[in-house]
Amino acid sequence: MNARITSIVASGNAIVAGSDSNGVFITTNGGTSWTAINSGLADTHISQLVTLGTRLFAVTLNGVFVSDNNGTSWAADSSGLENMNCFVVVNNQLFAGTDDNGVYLSVDSGETWAPVSPEMPANTRVWSLAASSDSIFAGTSSGVWRMPINTSNQAPTIATPASASPNPVTGTTTTLSVLGADDAGEANLTYRWAATGTPPASVTFSPNGTNAAKVTTATFAKAGSYTFQTTVTDAGGLTATSSVGVTVNQTFTSIVVSPTSATVNTSATQQFTATARDQFATSLTTQPPFTWSVSGGGTISSNGLFTAGATAGGPYTVTAQSGGVSGTASVTVSSAPTTVYQINCGGSASSPYTADQYYSGGTARKVTNSINTTGVTNPALQAVYQAERYGKTITYTLPSLTAGASYTVRLHFAELYWTASGKRKFNVAINGTTVLSNYDIYAATGARYKAVVREFTATANTSEQIVINFTTAADNATIEGIQIIRQ
Length: 487
Fold this sequence. Notes:
This protein is an all-beta fold.
């Protein structure tokens, strides 16, 4: 670098030098090499360089130029303050001396300016500035002027208290706003919002923890009363706070109908219930009245009880309505399944079960002990579980079915003899297909005299039959009851 240097400053890890006619140069390797950085610099006659934070100022014969990228590019100062000759920085405050208007102060990195030298005569030209611990000294055409300054950092203050709009809230968000003031300028403040006390649920704030968070959106997850506090922090870590209370009301938003879908046999009933929910999908504290309707398939009462008609069909739409809000569910009416056979194996008739029939092999036996049917869906009668047909091989051939049609086969079991698992095991096959292998009733129920039902789907064979075979694996096979139901 071969130039007459008029000003030199440190900017981050770099050294930046201004020259009297060749513009600005930068070194990032301790002065080993220098690079000109004059892009956008309309005047290369530099009288002073000054840094404030990440901003670099260059004073030239034709005004001030500013760079926010360490001199990579420059732009003419657009703050509106004209004829600036010199600068000095004190506690992140920028002072400027002018040609004919004395000294000005900026607390926002040169964006705006305010005069601070009212004692100076009008049209005073300031040639240079310097600072001590408590004063600014201005070298002027009429001598040196001294201006006291407050060099200690002052805590920020609240210029506009925290507020919320809307408040109360009927949706899921509200806008929170606050404005602080600071001796180093509002732009140096950060705002952090938080819910205080015990809020009904967590709240998110966007943005938060930045200067832009002076206006933020609070998003709620539950209705209730909230108190929000914003902490305003300056560059020196000093703070001020402001709080606002916000009420979030439940707003009737949706209706949930339960069950959401149902299949009902012809002439049968299904109870539907409705729940009004708020904007957070939470049930309203006070439920409104509902009006019920159904699009077909039957009728529905004022309290949501659907009664199916005599004809299968659907799905139909069940609607619960309150005010302008509605919710729906679906209902399908199906033909009731036909029970073809209900057999009390090893026992006599006990309506609707018939006496034992269509069997070959095995021996009938009865007990009088009470049978536990807890946990069994649609259990058989006590009399069915108290009778059994047992043996090494048992076959039931159930005739007069519809070839190719599907049937539900329900086999009812109870261990009527053994008191431990592993004592009785057997296999079951339906139309030649094994459906149970080494089946142990006691292991399945965990107790003697306790019922269990195993249910299978079978297709009637070409002989219009369903054939069920029981074969022993340990001790004897046993069966207490059989149901064949047309699907």
